[in-house]
Amino acid sequence: MIEMHNVFKKYSNGVQAVNGIDITFKAGEFAYVVGPSGAGKSTFIKMMYREEKPTSGSIIIDGIDLSKLKERHVPLLRRKIGVVFQDFKLLPQLTVYENVAFALEVIEETPKSIKKRVMEVLDLVKLKHKARAFPNELSGGEQQRVSIARSIVNNPKVMIADEPTGNLDPDTSWEIMKLFEEINERGTTIVMATHNKEIVNTMKRRVIAIEYGKIARDEVKGDYGYEA
Ligand SMILES: Nc1ncnc2c1ncn2[C@@H]1O[C@H](COP(=O)(O)OP(=O)(O)OP(=O)(O)O)[C@@H](O)[C@H]1O
Fold first, then answer.
1. What phi and psi values does residue 14 have, to the nearest 5 degrees?
2. Given this model, what pLDDT does residue 108 score?
3. At a CB cut-off of 8 Å and minimum separation 6, what does 74 contact?
4. Structural domain boundaries of the chain?
């Protein structure tokens, strides 16, 4: 589902953030990306959804070679990938419903089918009753659930999450992880960068540790492996 071959990324300020990464994620996998601050985790995952371009090397997502992807075809890639951020990135002037509907790729869809799909994903994240609320009327956990609903509304094959529990308390973080597990069970491949030691050690999933822009560890049922 995701393939990276010999990927390097040097920012224009000269920082070599990713320094030769080769990795494959199979369809349906759930993997955590861990490592010290500044090790290159965000850069690594930003390249998967084309937020950053590698300096060299190739990245293939569900058969799409990102190095050959024309700007005008980036939306095609984004339809395959849902992205969840630490700071939610909801649009404050839109309601919960509108935030999710806004992300839906509307190709020859009727208003009725759009409404059905948006309410379906709001139901999955247990926020149907907040459809008319605005983001600033929600708790952090609720805002993250809206952003998860938004990320899966197009039925993406891959979900990328960068520190999705970083702004949440432990109980709320676990609620979010249950949702991720549910989404993964439905077949979506998940790659999640995190500093949450407890979650990684409890879930026993694939763990990829990045240090100095390289893969330092890749374990099938791994541990966080650093002090929290
Ligand atoms: N847009 C940018 N321009 C220049 N340098 C950057 C940029 N983004 C990140 N860097 C640098 O690249 C290196 C890797 O950063 P990155 O954000 O990928 O690390 P990280 O492992 O995600 O860190 P953290 O755990 O703190 O989020 C760091 O030295 C950082 O300062």
1. 95, -5
2. 64
3. 50
4. 2-12+26-41+65-219
Query: What's the pLDDT score for residue 58?
Result: 96
- Full DSSP string of 127-148: -GGGTT--GGGS-HHHHHHHHH
The predicted structure's pLDDT at residue 107: 67
What pLDDT is stored for residue 67 in this prediction? 85
Cα–Cα distance measured from residue 159 to residue 130, given in angstroms and rounded to the nearest whole number = 24
Q: Are 184 and 32 in contact (CB under 8 A)?
A: no
Tens of pLDDT, residues 181-214? 999 999 999 999 999 999 999 999 999 999 999 9
Could you tell me if the CB of 209 is within 6 A of ligand 1? no
Ligand 1 mutation target, pool 41, 52, 192, 215, most atoms within 8 A of CB: 41
Instruction: Give the percent of the chain with pLDDT over 90.
Output: 87
37 lines ligand 1 (CB under 6 A): yes
111's tokens: 């208003």
CB 20 within 8 A of CB 132: no
Determine whether the shortest distance from the Cβ of 93 to ligand 1 is under 6 A.
Answer: no
Q: Which residues contact 122 (CB under 8 A, 6 or more apart)?
A: 96, 97, 100, 128, 130, 131, 149
Name the CATH superfamily for 2-12+26-41+65-219: P-loop containing nucleotide triphosphate hydrolases (3.40.50.300)
For residue 43, report the distance from its CA to the centre of ligand 1, in Å.
6
Shortest-distance Cα residue to atom 6 of ligand 1: 11
